[in-house]
């Protein structure tokens, strides 16, 4: 499998419309139970696009954990943070974590990258959690439709 690049879309979720996508991401960021922190929000004028900066406070993909292992040179790579999440129309995207890490740390050795090998999937899972409806909404919706809950994951790799 090839490394993801700039043109590879990291699709995290879809909604019926732009307002629903924004409301879900904003609600989940405000909740903070997942240790995801809003850093910035930029509304792109005359479009249905909003760019969020998201800090990851815990887990294998946490900002502190990844940076402690990868950011050891005299010149710091602080610009790597925060992670960007784009709400574009009714869809939510983020660059693939492996690509972002490789872009920010081009001199990262394979040995060092292996120390954070679980981080890219953890980062994707964290960002993707911002697109999930509230648990009660999922249960109500499933009960109304007679459906069993399932992941909305589209099968795309984080890579």
Topology diagram in text:
Layout lengths: L10 E4 L3 H14 L4 E9 L4 E8 L6 H8 L12 E6 L2 E3 L3 H8 L5 H6 L3 H11 L5 H11 L14
Average pLDDT reading: 78
- What helical percentage do the residues reach? 25-40%
Judged by helices, strands and strand pairing, the structural class is: alpha+beta
Morphology call: elongated
Total number of β-strand segments? 5
Explained architecture:
With 159 residues, this protein is α+β, with helices and mostly antiparallel strands. It contains 6 helices and 5 strands; from the N terminus they run βαββαββαααα. Strands 1-5-4-3-2 form a 5-stranded antiparallel beta sheet, covered by helices on one side. The longest helix has 14 residues, at 18-31.
Primary descriptors:
about 160 residues; 5-stranded antiparallel sheet; alpha+beta; elongated
Brief overview:
The chain is built from six helices and five strands; from the N terminus they run βαββαββαααα.
């Amino acid at each position: 499998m090839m490394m993801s690049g700039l043109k590879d879309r990291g699709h995290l979720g879809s909604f019926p419309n732009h307002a629903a996508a924004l409301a879900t991401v904003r609600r989940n960021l405000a909740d903070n139970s997942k240790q995801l922190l809003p850093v910035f929000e930029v509304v792109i004028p005359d479009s249905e696009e909003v760019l969020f900066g998201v800090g990851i406070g815990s887990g294998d993909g946490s900002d502190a954990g990844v940076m402690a292992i990868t950011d050891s040179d005299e010149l710091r790579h602080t610009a790597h943070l925060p992670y960007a999440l784009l709400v574009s129309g009714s869809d939510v995207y983020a660059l693939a974590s492996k690509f972002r890490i490789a872009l920010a740390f081009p001199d990262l050795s394979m040995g060092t990258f292996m120390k954070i090998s679980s981080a890219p999937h953890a980062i994707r899972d964290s960002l993707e959690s911002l697109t999930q409806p509230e648990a009660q909404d999922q249960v109500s919706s499933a009960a109304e439709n007679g459906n069993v809950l399932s992941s909305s994951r589209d099968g795309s790799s984080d890579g």
